[in-house]
Amino acid sequence: MSDSNLHLKLNRERFEISEEFLEKYNRPGPRYTSYPTAPVWQENFHPEDIEQFYATANTARTPVSLYMHLPFCENLCLFCACNVVITKDHSVAPPYIEILEREIAHVSRFVSRERPIVQFHWGGGTPTYLTPEQMEKLFRYTAERFTFAPDAEIGIEIDPRVTSQAHLEALRRLGFNRLSMGIQDFHPEVQEAINRVQPLEMTRDLIDGARKLGFDCEFPTAPPRRIIRDARHFYVPVREVRVETYQGIVHNLTTQNGTFTAPFVVTHNCHAYAAGMDLHTEKGVNQTLASFDKDIGFDKLKVVHLNDSRGGQGSGLDRHEHIGMGYIGTKGFKAILHHETIKDLPWILETPEDERRDDKGNLETVRKLAK
């Protein structure tokens, strides 16, 4: 393979990815929060078509992955784009479970018991909206109709605000081995703004309890790593689930200009660039921000997510890169960091950590570019 190939190291394994492979998938894609994704749905797809797919898969004897959607939440997180039903009335759960069981019974007729279930995931919504008893009933109903592989990955999304020790113990007893827990931020005012008040202590205690029971835990938004900027300094106050020692005044959504609560706007360098906005030249940054001011208004912009992009302009590829090492580059970031209208806003650093650079390296790069 040529030197232009992409070299990756994941879980101590090395991979080489060719330019041809990258080019094949370097294109816009639909949001992942529904499956099948929106472009797949067609009016001419009928029940007999899905049954034919089931039959073809059975013939191939391929392993099976199951997904269960539990849409209920007691409160709406303002960043959420999932298919949810917001209600504190838990009487909605039993009728939904009954419908789910009918669907499970129907689908299981088309899936051979010789095909192992290698992945089973419960998403939402908030699956732990259900009581431990309801979860146990639903899981056992499913297990009676499918064959689970001994090493199956069985995961569930949880919300620390509604997940109890009884939930965790019931889930582990049933065979769940993976927990997915969204963590957006531990700053109280950010949590208030996004309507997800989830204190550090609550989250930490739940993670500790889950790990003692043998769960693997993952955090879809990654452990929070933030650079928060006032007119003079940068800070990295949170790493994983520990608050670092630091000095100085930190302005998050509470800044010298006041306290901001929803609705407000967050810009994201990688997303904006991948969507087609020019951020890699000073002229492009000026034009992009002028357009933003005209269409949305700088008065609504309160936070900037800072990251470079592994995809080109307009690629639709949401892949974060180290500051200055992607397509936006150092010229683009110099222009962004010095732009008069946004230079004093809070900044959140959202970059990878790998053998090339860690958080401190990205922080140092930003400091140099901001001088």
Topology, pairings included?
Layout: E1 6-10, E2 13-17, H1 19-25, H2 47-60, E3 64-70, E4 72-73, E5 85-86, H3 93-108, E6 116-124, H4 132-143, E7 147-158, H5 165-174, E8 178-181, H6 188-193, H7 200-212, E9 216-218, E10 228-229, E11 234-235, E12 238-239, E13 242-243, E14 254-255, E15 258-259, E16 265-268, H8 269-274, H9 282-295, E17 301-306, E18 308-309, E19 320-321, H10 329-338, E20 347-349, H11 359-370
Parallel strand pairs: 3-6, 4-5, 6-7, 7-8, 8-9, 16-17, 17-20
Antiparallel strand pairs: 1-2, 10-11, 12-13, 14-15, 18-19
Helix pairs in contact: 3-4, 4-5, 9-10
Please outline what is shown here.
The protein has 371 residues and is of the alpha/beta class. 32% of the residues lie in helices and 21% in strands. The chain folds into two domains: 46-181, Rossmann fold (3-Layer(aba) Sandwich), CATH 3.40.50; 228-370, TIM Barrel (Alpha-Beta Barrel).
Commentary on this structure:
This protein has 371 residues and is an alpha/beta fold. It has 11 helices and 20 strands. The strands form 8 sheets. It has a 5-stranded parallel beta sheet, covered by helices on one side. A 3-stranded parallel beta sheet has the order 16-17-20. The protein has a two-stranded antiparallel ribbon with strand order 1-2. It folds into 2 domains: 46-181, Rossmann fold, CATH 3.40.50; 228-370, Divalent-metal-dependent TIM barrel enzymes (TIM Barrel). It has helices at 19-25, 47-60, 93-108, 132-143, 165-174, 188-193, 200-212, 269-274, 282-295, 329-338, 359-370, and strands at residues 6-10, 13-17, 64-70, 72-73, 85-86, 116-124, 147-158, 178-181, 216-218, 228-229, 234-235, 238-239, 242-243, 254-255, 258-259, 265-268, 301-306, 308-309, 320-321, 347-349.
